[in-house]
Amino acid sequence: MSSTHGESFCIYVSPSESAGSGTSDDPFGNPTAAVANALPGSRIILKDGIYKTDLTVQNSGTIDKPIFICAENRHAAIFEGASVYVYDSSDIIIEGLAFRNSTAQALSAVGACERNAYNDLHFSDCGIDSRTACTMYLGGSGSEGAVVQSCTFTVSKVPDKGAELPIAIMISEGDTEEGAAPNRFAMIRGNSFTNYGCAIIVGTQGGSAANFSHVIEGNAIN
Length: 222
What we know:
This protein is mainly beta. Helices cover about 5% and strands about 35% of the residues.
């Protein structure tokens, strides 16, 4: 995988926990170091392996130069028991990663995020504890244009009868006070959900869904 901006914009990561310099032959040892060095147009490439530490993203790309965080090989970079948190960051594209056995939300995007995309991610048994709200959370206030597409959300076994059933994706309504910013224009399409009690919950505070303008289409719920 190579960046359209050239090799200099590619930042490589392995789960080795070594220092590294971010090149393909000498990758950073964790994604946090890569994100700290990312600029608009950077492509952070996670090599195959198990990543066991949480990742927080607080920097942004631009509309014409997003920051990519992606697997070198589809679903072979696995966050095991770990989560990704995106805070007030825009033009971030996360794709091809896998998440497994995350006890908290596996992926959360909170705050004034714009135009972030989450593509072809695989979630297995993540955020399904009764103390956890969901597997993926799009919340806070003032987010616009989030896209979740071609992702798979699976629970390995059907919960026991009477158990609290897990939720896959939760979109909060944001702040709907007069003059404040709701969360708007999320696109949830082409995803697959298996063995969840609820695939998608969208908050509207009892108001008109037209105030939020989300689109949910072409998903498979098993």
